[in-house]
Amino acid sequence: MRQNEKISPAVIRRLPRYLRALEDLENSKAERISSGELSKLIGYTASQIRQDLNHFGGFGQQGYGYNVKDLKAEIEKILGLGTQYRMVIVGSGRLGQAINSFISSYSDDFRVISLFDVKEDLIGKEKSGVLIRDVACLEEYLRENKPDIGVITVTKEHAQEACDKLIAGGVRGIWNFAPIDLEGSPDIPMENVHLSDNLHSLVYYINHPEQI
Amino acid sequence: MRQNEKISPAVIRRLPRYLRALEDLENSKAERISSGELSKLIGYTASQIRQDLNHFGGFGQQGYGYNVKDLKAEIEKILGLGTQYRMVIVGSGRLGQAINSFISSYSDDFRVISLFDVKEDLIGKEKSGVLIRDVACLEEYLRENKPDIGVITVTKEHAQEACDKLIAGGVRGIWNFAPIDLEGSPDIPMENVHLSDNLHSLVYYINHPEQI
DNA sequence: CTGAGATAGTGATAAAATTAACAGGTGAGC
DNA sequence: GCTCACCTGTTAATTTTATCACTATCTCAG
User: For the segment B156-188, what is each residue's pLDDT rounded down to a tens digit?
Assistant: First the structure.
């Protein structure tokens, strides 16, 4: 980004959406796209799109717009895609398995190298080609394999412990699905997916349709 | 809320978090909580907490704080909890099943009344006590059972069709897990859980730790 | 019953985010 | 090559969101 400017979280949250749109455009063989057309596709104002992208550099050209392929490549570079992130999932219940299967089919940039669980009957099994290991071996496994991202899909009672171990084991980021706000580490980014919060917001708007 | 005031989305997104904190407090037998203490627990400033809550009425008392039980009840009322929401899940793959199992165990306020899928080998089976039906029967089922919330956990190719049918079938809200921005209806709220977007944001912060 | 201390409510202020406006390149059509 | 509609980068204005600072009120100990 330009001169060490601090980029607001709001902008970062939109980048993946731009990327998705650009993938679709690439698939439909579009070569160029203007902020105005992009605006129609994804609903942000053209102004916002131009301003967002401009935080990272002038990727567009007056009178032309943005080159789809180039812009996609730029956003991938900004996000840090293009290299493989190795992940472990702590908690191999339905949600853990669903995330595992999602990641396997989603992109080569992300690879689950191991699942973990406490349950005897799960340990040793394979899911989507990934072995479920005993969570008792988590620390050792982290030491030896140094995964990049730890995913937490255990119950909220066990989530903090999983988090502590992942951080101690040196993961670079945490993706938390447990319905609790974990104590992390100031240098280790954590993304939370709080399904219940999301559902509650939905219910609010169901009951207050005038506020949509 | 006070005099038809329009509540900002930022406030609404925080309400579920307050609720979670209050549940924890209730479980630990706390009777009262001040904005200052709550601030320490969940990280928002005390000012913000007071202002957020005050949009809906003066639930607190000077010199005392907020009564945990009462405040929890108020927030539940604001969100529209306390009544049961009947849900259908379109897409019974791993993610659909994970959401189903999450909802079943999460709260009595939400009940999945049916799953749907196209796959022959899934139709007729039960998951967490819920029957998987043929998606071909979705429209008829919606007409007859009028569920409140439709959950979309199909592939992105089939998501728009599922969305259209759910809306035509009269659901009051949509919870979308497909990695696509759906065309909905202006009166029907839609909450999106875009896992890939979330993961991409995480990766950005992994690569830009100075921006956390 | 009283007064010190605590704490919510609230209007003002500041900060952040979004949208609007526009100067000035760009390139397609002629 | 000219011209004009197009479209970006960028600055300005506006809107939204968050914080601050202060006042009124309540609690609780004595």
Answer: 999 999 999 999 999 999 999 999 999 999 999
Supply B60's token pair.
């607190």
Whether B201 has its CB under 8 Å from any CB of chain A: the answer is yes
DSSP calls for A8-39: PHHHHHHHHHHHHHHHHHHHTT--EE-HHHHH
The DSSP bridge partners found for residue B54 are none
- Return the beta strands (E) in A129-172 as ranges: 130-134, 149-152
Residue B2 has pLDDT above 80, yes or no: no
Q: What is the pLDDT of residue B5?
A: 78
Q: Name which of B108, B195, B199 to mutate to probe chain A: the one with the most chain A Cβ atoms within 10 A of its Cβ.
A: B199
Q: Which positions on chain C have an atom < 7 Å from some protein CB?
A: 4-11, 16-21, 23-27
CA atoms within 13 A on the CB side of B161: 13
Orientation angle between helical segments A195-207 and B94-106, nearest 10 degrees: 70
pLDDT tens digits, one per residue of A62-87: 999 999 999 999 999 999 999 999 99
Give the Cβ contact number of residue A62 at 10 Å.
6
Structural domains of chain A, ranges and CATH numbers in brackets? 2-79 (1.10.10.10), 85-197 (3.40.50.720)
| pLDDT at A212 (0 to 100) | 84
Residue reference for tokens 């995913």: A151
With contacts defined as CB-CB under 8 Å, which chain B residues touch A99?
A: 195
